[in-house]
Amino acid sequence: MTESPKNKNVNNSKSISSRINIAEALKLRLVKHLSYQEIADKYGVAKSAVYQALKRFLSILVEPDELEAYKNHKVDLLSSAEMKLLERLVNDEVIEKASLNNVAYAFQQIFNSGRLEQGKSTERIDVFAVTAKLEDLEKKREELLQKIQIRVLKHKEMKSDENKQENS
Length: 168
Fold this sequence. Notes:
Elements: H1 5-18, H2 22-30, H3 36-43, H4 47-54, H5 64-72, H6 74-89, H7 92-97, H8 100-117, H9 127-167
Helix pairs in contact: 3-4, 6-8
């Protein structure tokens, strides 16, 4: 049984795409800033083969320079997005068209992302519980210090008694 020319093309494209390590190709594109042609040269395939292999990622793939700019200014960009959403929260036309819950949810997500970027927590902290725990720890610390002081005193007494026995 002979293969049709159409099947040969499918098999040929599969063999070409199997020569491309997609994870590595993405890394070369995003981290090393290589062009599609440079990646194709590395794998010994056509530029279009690299493009086809990475095609499903193109909707989320940005140019390496844009990605670097985003990384360097992420906090500012998130703060700006937060401000825009806040402006929408107080815009009467937007409130009428969209549910306030949806806009508030979007604001919360941007706000939390901004806090994480600044190294802050997104969790609500029960100050009273934390204070109570600190007080418990302080009490245990004091108890341990008293036990240590008692042991040190007993040790000194034992040494003193030993010295008295040796001298007599």
